[in-house]
Amino acid sequence: MADEGLRPIIVKRIKKGGGGHHGGAWKIAYADFVTAMMAFFLLMWLLGSTAKGDLQGIAEYFQTPLKVAMSGGSGSGDSSSVIQGGGKDLTRKEGQVRKADDPQMKKTYNLQAAHLKDLEQELERAELARLRTLKTKIEDAINARPLLNQFKSQLLLDITSEGLRIQIVDEQNRPMFALSKAELQPYTKEILLEIGKALNDVPNRISLSGHTDATPYASGEKGYSNWELSSDRANASRRALIAGGMDEAKVIRVVGLSSAMLFDKENPFNPINRRISIIVMNKKAEESALKDGGTVEVQAQGAQAPAAPAAPAARPQ
Prior knowledge:
It is a single-pass membrane protein. The structure is a single chain. The chain has a domain at 129-290: CATH 3.30.1330.60. Helix content is 40%, strand content 10%. It has 9 helices and 5 strands, in the order ααααααββαβαββα. Strands 1-2-5-3-4 form a 5-stranded mixed β-sheet. α3 crosses α4, α5 (111-144) packs antiparallel against α7 (186-199) and α7 (186-199) packs across α8. 21% of the residues are buried.
């Protein structure tokens, strides 16, 4: 019995370790496997639901993505696909407004039209540069000649939506034409001769229009009136331009507008309303003028006209 009291007591302790394959690492591997299988399933589904032509479009996109983006393309969301696209219009806050197969939602780009538009804009810029150069050349030619330099206040040049507009206007004590006649004053003829030399530097066609003030003839509109006078003065200006060296084929229109388009609308009897307007037309204005009903005249904007004298009873004959 004494031996039983000395018997050793053995305590078994169980140490818990990582557990090997019984741990949680297999869950991560399984999740990766499931993700890979899902991606593979989605890839196979997309390949199966996309037509052969669409597959070629996708391949072309990854080869040249910019070309496809500009020229447009189709995909599995199009109405031609087996799997119909659709869904809510994300540009709206509420309500199902449009579907993906709505023709209005498809954007296409015409590369040829875009190229032509860029070319047209480039031609317009080049044409505008030519007209500005012509404007500077005429101004320099007037400034270089002392005889003409004193009349530069009567020469108005500006760029309008239809081209370069050159206006030669009357002043109170310095008219361009003889009184109530289509006879050019010597200095007016010199100005037109100088302009005629410069106009051949550009290929643009021109339009001439004559204008008078509102002072009527004693005979009124029944006989020789401001309409005939403005037309005769415009034609006299055309002859002076041709004498200066301008090609006569450049003239596309010669019109007399009487006092229908006043420079100074507030003062219809102001001498500045008596003027010759020469428009060096751009391409658009030329095409418009060649069509029936085309107009080329541009009204003056923002010009400061001198004070108008008292209205005479009738234009002297």
